[in-house]
């Protein structure tokens, strides 16, 4: 487990985007060998996506041979709704890069058989060869994707009822009208993300500070599902200074001394050589 601490949100977003870019370039994807990337939605990854778009427009990266799998989608929200995760991904990322739409996978919360949709999603990931790098964000209560507190840490893609705290937190996207916020979602499981070869979790803002503390300074706990990634052999937490407010001083000093003194490219090479640590 590694913790990369940047001064503020924009720098954390840039670091994460460079890491994704470098991982794809290092992989050397082609028609016979796609790079498979897991992606989140929400306010935290927005800056990262904007940087990746910049890299694409400058010719630094292509997504032609990249397949993506998003973490989640609301149940019952029309795909064209401005707050659906389909809309979020296409408006904020996919339509600005050269990815083949057939290679951008997002769960469909409007199908008749939701369970079958979840099973098919797991199958598509398996057929793609698994996820090389799964990028995720977390909620203030430490949930990753829609794996709410109390979720199984070996869970797979499934239908999930959203916690009241999550509904309240998401109300800002629906005019602060709780009645308009979906109460169910389709989500990859903790186990689904754990199967990825590498996981990068973005945590920014003081409102996520206690969740970061629970994620790295306390033990694995199904009430804080992000804590499961302590046990993944290649997890990188990328955060800003505000998110470290609940961490012990020696924790911050340790990780700053070991990660922040090297560039993203060097860190990428370091992790590729130390994947078992």
UniProtKB/TrEMBL annotation:
The chain's coiled-coil residues are 104-131
Q: Where in the cell is it found?
A: Cytoplasm
SUPFAM superfamilies, sorted = NagB/RpiA/CoA transferase-like
InterPro entries for the chain: Glc/Gal-6P_isomerase, Glucosamine6P_isomerase, Glucosamine6P_isomerase_CS, NagB/RpiA_transferase-like
Reaction(s) catalysed by this chain's protein? alpha-D-glucosamine 6-phosphate + H2O = beta-D-fructose 6-phosphate + NH4(+)
PROSITE patterns recorded for this chain? GLC_GALNAC_ISOMERASE
Domain named Glucosamine/galactosamine-6-phosphate isomerase: residues: 16-232
What is the residue range of the signal peptide feature?
none
> EC number(s)?
3.5.99.6
Q: Does the keyword Hydrolase apply?
A: yes
Instruction: Give one Pfam hit by family name.
Output: Glucosamine_iso
User: Which keywords belong to this entry?
Assistant: Carbohydrate metabolism, Coiled coil, Cytoplasm, Hydrolase
Name the GO cellular-component terms. Answer: cytoplasm
GO molecular function annotations of the record: glucosamine-6-phosphate deaminase activity; identical protein binding
Q: Which GO terms describe its biological process?
A: carbohydrate metabolic process; glucosamine catabolic process; N-acetylglucosamine catabolic process; N-acetylneuraminate catabolic process
Q: Name the family the entry cites.
A: Belongs to the glucosamine/galactosamine-6-phosphate isomerase family.
Quaternary structure (record): Homohexamer.
Q: Which PANTHER family match?
A: GLUCOSAMINE-6-PHOSPHATE ISOMERASE, GLUCOSAMINE-6-PHOSPHATE ISOMERASE 2
- The name this protein carries in UniProt is Glucosamine-6-phosphate isomerase
Species in which this protein is naturally found: Dicentrarchus labrax (European seabass)
């Amino acid at each position: 487990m590694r913790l990369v601490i940047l001064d503020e949100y924009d720098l954390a977003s840039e670091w994460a985007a460079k890491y994704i870019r470098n991982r794809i370039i290092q992989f050397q994807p082609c028609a016979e060998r796609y790079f498979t990337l897991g992606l989140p939605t929400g306010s935290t990854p927005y800056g990262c996506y904007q940087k990746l778009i910049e890299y694409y427009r400058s010719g630094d990266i292509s997504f032609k041979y990249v397949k993506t799998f998003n973490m989640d989608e609301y149940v019952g929200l029309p795909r064209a709704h401005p707050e659906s995760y389909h809309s979020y991904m296409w408006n904020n990322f996919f339509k600005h890069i050269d990815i083949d739409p057939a290679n951008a996978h997002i769960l469909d919360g409007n199908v008749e058989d939701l369970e079958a949709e979840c099973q098919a999603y797991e199958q598509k990931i398996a057929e793609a060869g698994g996820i090389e790098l799964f990028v995720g964000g977390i909620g203030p209560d430490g949930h990753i994707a829609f794996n709410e507190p109390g979720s199984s840490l070996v869970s797979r893609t499934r239908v999930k009822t959203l916690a009241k705290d999550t509904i309240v937190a998401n109300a800002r996207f629906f005019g602060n009208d709780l009645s308009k916020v979906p109460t169910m979602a389709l989500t990859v499981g903790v186990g689904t993300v754990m199967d990825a070869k590498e996981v990068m979790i973005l945590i920014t803002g003081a409102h996520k500070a206690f969740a970061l503390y629970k994620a790295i300074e306390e033990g694995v706990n199904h009430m804080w599902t992000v804590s499961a990634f302590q046990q993944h052999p290649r997890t990188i937490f990328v955060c800003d200074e505000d998110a470290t407010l609940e961490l012990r001083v020696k924790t911050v000093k340790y990780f700053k001394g070991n990660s922040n003194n090297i560039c993203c490219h060097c860190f990428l090479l370091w992790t590729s050589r130390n994947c078992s640590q």
